[in-house]
């Protein structure tokens, strides 16, 4: 595989990972926290409902998990495709 | 020891620390001045980014916004943290790989256009200057309340301290003072929050306390809060308006804050200071860890402070008589002096009636009780600052809050000032006016730009334009509609060309600024607005604070359309984009500078 093909395969894998992460990012904040909150209103948590928890706390925790997950996965992608820094 | 002496010791000690760091971390080259020599550890950079990001607005105002906005204010929480996901996934690693010093420099090189670079400089300066005014006025408020000096003296002291470490140390000095400022501000924020959480719920961790039981009655805290404020005619704290337009506005506002956060240059340039591309990714994660410590605490502080306030005014419950003005606690007296809390005895009975007098459905109940309008006006901003007094905490906690508020304002101001001065010295002076300037000449130019930027910011802080509070919408709107899309397209597309990028940026910028002016008045002059800035009164049913996301969509669409119709990007630009996408070689990209 040429360097160009390698770089292309690496970039495709990266974009795929970004898309997956952004879908989760959108579901927990814009989804559970805003648009889908009425659907989650049946699930009670601490005097209110799950959507309120996602809007004020849950989404932030998921964001944190997402960035570290992405950084971790990218490090192994860098190595796998031979584009990591020495 | 009296409160004033304590405040003086805490603030004085923190300032001495910042100046000590300034002397230790002097910058010797432009690389150190602009990017701290690219030798900052990712965790250290994460902490500095957190202080850089968390402004006077986050520290002082946000909990108050949540306290009085309830669920709707969740936009701030999701928006100001969710932007870091975009930064980590879409921008930071690639811009670090690019290996230059400023955001306009990337835009200029990638779109091979001096015009694009200058448009980016204009966006950067408008966004950062409007933002810095808020920091300076915030510092002034903290000084005048806690150190009993005039606003002017306070601001000048603050400016002198920033001058010391920003002019001497550039990014290097700013980075290490921001680390110290983060420690000061997070300690100051957390300690009173823990005590209040313990008092109200018996749970030490505020984010858990928020969803626990209120010990006095055994009900869940949020259910209790919903009930007592509805008894006073306010909307329930956790209430969501599920009709179409309010939901759309919350959606777009959150989106605007997220992409605005990711597009703000003073945050982006922090990621130029780490040694490697992988570090930029980790560092964004660490930044969010340190930011989340405050952002998870803030909603708890907001809800608990609101409940505390109702309990203070209505000690026998919200359906019983409130306390008499003569028996008000000391902290109310302290804050009345500042004018941020006001009492007016409208029905002349000597009691403090505090309720929602704009709720038509509650008017009958109020008239029955002989109430003639709400008699207490509470400014959002005092909740965090007054928290330790409301909770009856010792004097040193109050002193810590004073030092914390100043740390939040000064750390953000320094980051913004660096973004402004590097755009002037690197993009305007070296990039456009005198490209042959020597390394030493540029370093001197950078220091002079910084000094001028501080002077301008101080002047604006002393003479705040009447619109200071409104301009945050402008800063986020511009970053969201203009800078973020250009940066993202520059990395994720090889097809967007010079003409497309400039057309897109200008469309996003002009659309957003005009929309904001149509609703808030031209140049924020009252009375010159054509539309009311409410959901019902606005042009498209979208409030001006939420319009940045729409501007961003227009930017993407125009850039794509125009690029399709004009010549393809040259091969060397395609190669540049491809090199930015892979981490290997980040070290050498920095070395040839």
Structural class of chain B: mainly alpha
Q: Which shape of chain A, going by the Cα principal axes?
A: elongated
**Which structural class do you get from the secondary structure elements of chain A?**
mainly alpha
On the 0-100 scale, what is the average pLDDT of chain B?
Answer: 89
How are the strands of the largest sheet of chain A arranged?
A: 1-2
Topology, number of strands of chain A: 2
Q: Strand percentage of chain A, roughly? A: under 5%
Low-pLDDT ranges of chain A: none
Distance between the termini of chain A: 21 Å
CATH top level class name of chain B:
Mainly Alpha
CATH topology of chain B: Sodium/glucose cotransporter
Which percent bin holds the helix content of chain B?
55-70%
- Spatial strand order of the main sheet of chain B: 1-2
Number of domains of chain B: 1
Question: Mean of the pLDDT scores of chain A?
Answer: 92
Describe, in plain words, how this protein is organized in 3D:
- The complex is a heterodimer of chains A (86) and B (593).
- Chain A has a two-stranded antiparallel ribbon with strand order 1-2.
- The model of chain A has no long low-confidence stretch (mean pLDDT 92).
- Chain A has one domain.
- By secondary structure, chain A is mainly alpha-helical.
- Chain A is built from 2 helices and 2 strands.
- Helix content of chain A is 74%, strand content 5%.
- Chain B is mainly α and 593 residues long.
- Chain B has a single domain (3-307, 390-591), classed as Up-down Bundle (Sodium/glucose cotransporter), CATH 1.20.1730.
- Helices cover 70% and strands 1% of the residues of chain B.
- Chain B contains 23 helices and 2 strands.
- Chain B has helices at residues 3-24, 30-35, 42-53, 56-69, 74-98, 103-110, 114-146, 151-201, 206-209, 221-231, 244-263, 265-268, 277-313, 330-338, 363-368, 382-390, 395-433, 439-462, 471-492, 498-520, 548-565, 571-581, 586-591; strands at residues 341-343, 376-378.
- Chain B has a two-stranded antiparallel sheet with strand order 1-2.
- The longest helix of chain B has 51 residues, at 151-201.
- Chain B is globular, with a radius of gyration of 25 Å.
- Classes of the chains: A mainly alpha (86), B mainly alpha (593).
- Chains A and B meet through helix 1, strand 2 and helix 2 of A and helix 5, helix 10, helix 11 and helix 13 of B.
- Chain A: This is Putative solute:sodium symporter small subunit.
- Chain A: Residues 9-84 form the Sodium symporter small subunit domain.
- Chain A: InterPro entries: Na_symporter_ssu (IPR019886).
- Chain A: The chain crosses the membrane at residues 17-40, 52-72.
- Chain A: Pfam families: DUF4212.
- Chain B: The chain crosses the membrane at residues 6-25, 77-95, 116-134, 154-171, 183-205, 250-272, 284-305, 396-424, 444-462, 468-492, 499-518, 538-562.
């Amino acid at each position: 595989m040429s360097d160009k093909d390698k770089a292309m395969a690496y970039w495709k894998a990266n974009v795929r990972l970004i898309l997956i992460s952004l879908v989760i990012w959108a579901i927990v904040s814009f989804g559970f926290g805003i648009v889908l909150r009425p659907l989650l209103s049946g699930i009670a948590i601490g005097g209110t409902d799950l959507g309120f928890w996602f809007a004020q706390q849950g989404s932030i925790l998921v964001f944190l998990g997402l960035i570290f997950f992405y950084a971790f996965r990218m490090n192994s992608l860098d190595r796998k495709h031979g584009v990591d820094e020495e | 020891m009296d409160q004033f002496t304590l405040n003086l010791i805490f603030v004085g000690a923190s300032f001495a620390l910042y100046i000590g760091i300034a002397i230790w971390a002097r910058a010797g080259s432009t690389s150190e001045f602009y990017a701290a020599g690219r030798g900052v550890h990712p965790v250290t950079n994460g902490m500095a980014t957190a202080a850089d990001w968390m402004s006077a607005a986050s520290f002082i105002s946000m909990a108050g916004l949540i306290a009085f906005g309830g669920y709707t204010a969740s936009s701030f929480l999701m928006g100001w943290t969710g932007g870091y996901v975009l930064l980590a996934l879409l921008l930071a690693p690639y811009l670090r790989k690019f290996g230059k010093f400023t955001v306009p420099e990337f835009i200029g090189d990638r779109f091979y256009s001096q015009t694009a670079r200058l448009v980016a400089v204009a966006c950067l300066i408008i966004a950062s200057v409007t933002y810095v005014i808020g920091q300076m006025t915030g510092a002034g408020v903290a000084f005048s309340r806690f150190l009993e000096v005039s606003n002017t003296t306070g601001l000048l002291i603050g400016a002198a301290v920033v001058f010391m470490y920003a002019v001497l140390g550039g990014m290097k000095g700013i980075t290490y003072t921001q680390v110290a400022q983060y420690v000061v501000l997070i300690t100051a924020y957390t300690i009173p929050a823990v005590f209040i959480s313990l008092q109200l719920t018996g749970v030490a961790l505020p984010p858990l306390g928020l969803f626990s039981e209120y010990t006095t009655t055994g009900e869940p805290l949020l259910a209790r809060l919903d009930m007592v404020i509805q008894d006073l005619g306010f909307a329930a704290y956790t209430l969501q308006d599920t009709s179409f337009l309010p939901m759309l506005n919350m959606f777009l506002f959150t989106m605007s804050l997220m992409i605005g956060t990711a597009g703000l240059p003073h945050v982006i340039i922090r990621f130029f200071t780490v040694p490697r591309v992988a570090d930029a990714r980790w560092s964004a994660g660490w930044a969010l860890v340190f930011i989340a410590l405050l952002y998870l605490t803030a909603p708890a502080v907001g809800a608990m402070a609101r409940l505390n306030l109702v309990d203070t005014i209505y000690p026998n419950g919200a359906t019983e008589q409130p306390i008499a003005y003569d028996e008000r606690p000391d902290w109310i007296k302290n804050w009345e002096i500042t004018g941020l809390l006001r009492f007016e005895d409208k029905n002349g009975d000597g009691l403090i009636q505090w309720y929602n007098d704009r709720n038509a459905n509650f008017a009958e109940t109020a008239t029955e009780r002989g109430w003639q309008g709400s008699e207490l006006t509470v400014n959002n901003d005092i909740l965090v600052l007054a928290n330790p007094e409301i909770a009856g905490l010792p004097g040193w906690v109050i002193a810590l809050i004073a030092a914390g508020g100043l740390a939040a304002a000064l750390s953000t101001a320094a980051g913004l000032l660096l973004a402004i001065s590097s755009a002037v010295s690197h993009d305007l002076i070296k990039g456009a006016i005198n490209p042959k300037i020597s390394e030493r000449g540029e370093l001197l130019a950078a220091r002079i730009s910084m000094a001028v930027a501080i002077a301008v910011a101080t002047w604006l802080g002393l003479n705040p334009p009447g619109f200071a509070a409104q301009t945050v919408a402008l800063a986020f709107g511009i970053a969201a509609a203009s800078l973020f899309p250009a940066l993202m397209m520059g990395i994720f597309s090889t097809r967007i060309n010079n003409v497309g990028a400039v057309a897109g940026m200008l469309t996003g910028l002009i659309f957003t600024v005009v929309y904001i002016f149509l609703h808030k008045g031209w140049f924020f002059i009252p009375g010159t607005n054509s539309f009311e800035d409410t959901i019902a009164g606005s042009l498209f049913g979208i409030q001006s604070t939420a319009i940045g996301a729409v501007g961003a969509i227009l930017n993407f669409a125009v850039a794509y359309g125009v690029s399709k119709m004009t010549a393809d990007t040259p091969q060397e630009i395609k190669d540049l984009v491809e090199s930015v996408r892979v981490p290997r070689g980040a070290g050498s990209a920095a070395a040839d500078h």
